[in-house]
Design a protein that fits this description.
heterodimer, A: 384 residues, Rossmann fold, 2 domains, eight-stranded mixed beta sheet, B: alpha/beta, Pyruvate-ferredoxin Oxidoreductase, domain 3, six-stranded mixed beta sheet
Chain lengths: 384, 188
């Protein structure tokens, strides 16, 4: 297989470009989208690359249709992706719920910009955190990943596809305008060195009868592929193990929804990724994610130089959320700071996790600029 | 080692391309870390344009320039806005024809190289738009972070096919000007 971009070496590329290349290497062969700043470069790259790898890149009439198209493509057996920004992500919410309910592996990239509405198209923000988790209606769960560098955008795109396939779930990759347009060194491994996961298929006709049944005891049903010999019914209505609508049976509903949530909750250890910096002996913890985590790392270094024992927890997955881990940190520090490019979103999750064991303070910033290390340092010092 | 470089001017002068070339030379050809970021208005030409490159031999945390070690100014607006950010003792490269109003009090704390860059580019290659590449050459010599060889390769990667010769000519003129400047044989 020849790839239309350099592999096995480093390149100097934008975050959006890195996501497109990683998707191709992860096996994505169907992209549907509608252009929107600051996600358009993902679409541009997909339009360029897909025909060269026997894939499809298609412009739909809007984001509702883009989301619907990738769900269809996934049921036809393709690894599929769409990318958008806030306004488009809002339009995708209904079908994102459909993907959750039908346990369809897809990757949805939301390149955050200032909102609400059309807001600040060219500037970064982290205002879509709660939307990415709770934007669609009903009880549900999905996976949300948050890269902080262009290399992480690359690596996490591959991980997003692997998690989507492994757990038969939509995965949201939550990046922002800053990373989207920033150029950095990105190492692209040789394709044979990239570990790829593929969805579980029914082993036989018997298994294929239960496309929504926990027949292997791992809460992840095998997914039949349309056109591969099995008749399957896919519906957003509450359905039984065979996929038949059962819309007034409380027991069926509870079993289905609890399994969809638990297949992720019970595998938190595998799904949740994070990094720590100087956290072990820290008296003050900073919890951050995405671009802002980079300012936080610098802030921790500078605070340490001044003798203030600060440490950082950098979240690479923000849903499912490890509330217990936060409580563990809260027990060992006097204060937790949460810098975010919004007016408080992950802050609320951290506060719930801290469970009163440590004070939690938000360091908000909106308007398009990322926090400078000084923004964080000054707030921390005020509290010391 | 953390080095911050600022490029500023208006849309159409190749401010962003210049920054991409420097970042590419640092990462792809020197194995260093680099982050290139940009800010510009919605207009493709004429609006204010700013790009930054942070270069380091270790992973880069905060991705933006805090106080540039080296800054390039291609417009009066950019000069008025960003000159004050340049680190004391840092390098300021100034397009002297486009920036008539200078703050000599502030420039005193810097190593200033003011030249009619557009005119020199025009005379060198016949095309004034090679001014950005010429400036990259000048900056390479003055800042001494990247090798000429790496910059040449990055220029060849970045410029449109068919324009390689003319761009290399501009780049080498930049090297030559930088060489002269370092020897002190031209006065701003």
């Amino acid at each position: 297989m020849k790839y239309p971009f350099p592999v096995g070496r480093s390149d100097f590329i934008q975050g959006d470009e890195a996501i497109a290349r990683a998707a191709i290497l992860a096996g994505c062969r169907f992209y549907a989208g509608y252009p929107i700043t600051p996600a358009s470069e993902i679409f541009e790259a997909m339009a360029l690359y897909m025909p060269l790898v026997d894939g499809v890149s298609i412009q739909m009439e809007d984001e509702l249709a883009s989301m619907a198209a990738i769900i269809g493509a996934s049921w036809a057996g393709a690894k599929a992706m769409t990318a958008t920004s806030g306004p488009g992500f809002s339009l995708m919410q209904e079908n994102l719920g459909y993907a959750i309910m039908t346990e369809t592996p897809v990757v949805v990239v939301d390149v955050q910009r200032g909102g609400p509405s059309t807001g600040q198209p060219t500037l970064g923000a982290q205002g879509d955190v709660m939307q990415s988790i709770w934007g669609t209606h009903g009880d549900h769960s999905l996976i949300v990943l948050t890269p902080a560098t262009v290399q992480e955008a690359f690596d996490m795109t591959i991980r997003a596809f692997n998690l989507a396939e492994k757990y038969r779930t939509p995965v949201a990759l939550l990046t922002d305008a800053e990373i989207a347009h920033m150029r950095e060194r990105v190492y692209t491994p040789n394709p044979e060195d990239i570990e790829l996961v593929y969805r579980k298929l029914p082993a036989n006709k018997e298994e294929a009868q239960y496309p929504f049944g926990d027949i292997h005891g791992d809460m992840i049903p095998p997914m039949p592929i349309f056109g591969k010999g099995y008749r399957t019914y896919v519906t957003g209505l509450t359905h039984d193990e065979k996929g038949r609508p059962k819309t007034v049976d409380a027991e069926v509903h509870e079993r289905l929804i609890r399994r969809i949530i638990n297949k992720l909750e019970k595998n938190k250890e595998d799904i949740i990724a994070y990094e720590t910096f100087d956290l072990d002996d820290a008296e003050i913890a900073i919890i951050s994610y995405g671009t802002v985590a980079r300012s936080a790392i610098r802030a921790v270094k500078l605070l340490r130089e001044e003798g203030i024992k600060a440490g950082l927890l950098k979240l690479n997955t923000i849903w499912p959320f490890d509330f217990e881990m936060i409580e563990g940190i809260a027990e060992h520090v006097s204060k937790i700071y949460v810098p975010e490019m919004n007016l408080g979103q992950v802050y609320h999750l951290v506060k719930e996790g801290a469970n009163g064991k440590a004070e939690v303070e938000l360091i908000p910033k909106i308007g398009g600029e990322i926090h400078t290390p000084t923004d964080i340092i000054e707030r921390v010092k005020r509290g010391v | 080692m953390r080095r911050e470089i600022l490029f500023s001017g208006f849309g159409g002068q190749g401010v962003i391309l210049a920054s991409v070339i420097v970042g590419r030379a640092a990462t792809v050809y020197e194995g260093l870390y680099a982050v290139q970021t940009q800010a510009y208005g919605p207009e493709s030409r004429g609006g204010a344009s700013k790009a930054e490159v942070v270069i380091s031999d270790e992973p880069i945390d905060y991705p933006k320039a805090l106080s540039p070690d080296c800054a390039v100014f291609f417009s009066q607006e950019a000069y008025d806005k960003y000159l004050r950010l340049v680190k004391e003792g840092g390098i300021a490269i100034i397009e002297s024809d486009l920036i008539p109003h200078r703050r000599l009090d502030m420039e005193r704390k810097l190593r200033v190289y003011a030249l009619p860059l557009t005119e020199i580019a025009e005379k060198t290659t016949g095309l004034s738009l090679t001014m950005n590449i010429l400036t990259v050459g000048l900056l390479t010599k003055l800042s001494n972070v990247l090798s000429e060889d790496s910059i040449e390769k990055a220029v060849l990667d970045a410029v449109p096919k068919g324009t390689e010769t003319i761009n290399l000519k501009a780049l080498r003129k930049g090297f030559e000007l930088g060489e002269k400047a370092l020897k002190g044989s031209f006065k701003p």
